[in-house]
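hey so i finally got around to running the thing on that chain from the lab meeting. sorry it took forever, my laptop kept dying and i had to restart like 3 times. anyway pasting the input first so we r on the same page abt which one it is
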Amino acid sequence: MQGGSESNLAVTMAEMSRDLLAQDTVQRTLDRIVEHAIDLVDGCEHAGILLLQKGKVETLAVSDDLVRRSDRIQAELREGPCFDAAANSEQVYRIADLNDTQQRWPRYGPRARDLGIGSMMGFLLYTDADEFGALDLYSSRPGAFIERAELTGWLVASHAAVAMSSARLGAQLHSSITTRQVIGEALGIVMERYKVGEDQAFEVLKTGSQHRNVKLREIAEQITRTGEVPGER
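ok and heres what got predicted. didnt touch it at all, straight out
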């Protein structure tokens, strides 16, 4: 749904927020953000979510291969709108015409035009230490993103950032709970086998982790999966 009245946009944003929060994985949340961006932002034909971490580009979600190739070119050249936005902590960027970027991005600009990109727009989703996450929107037409499109894109990105944060936190909590459960089960196996207390059983897991140079969870998973205790003879 593109365009529409202000009241319709507000309703649509609320529906989008509910949809994003209903997704059960981080990746599904990211994929839905991209889909909503194309549906809602006037002029948007392609969209993607990019992570810039310590100078390395990672594509998290894309609508199609054009976006993936654009990300790959920026990563290869270490040049382009996402690098500039991250360096300057830009909340929003809008490039009306890729033909006018010769001075700014002498290498990325021509290759982006070869991909069929006429104009671009991007929004900060989050920054975390050395990480920069952005929602990038593309059109084949120069001048496709007008002021209203920027406002709609900003609203989409704002709702998306909240949903993304919630999804990431949920995934971290789920991983933490699962880890505790696995370690608890492994401790129980060691305690039962050697008739020792919890502290001594934990030392067995810790020693196995250090000797094998793997995470404690991996040792615990091995014990629960095979029943074998590291170092046992």
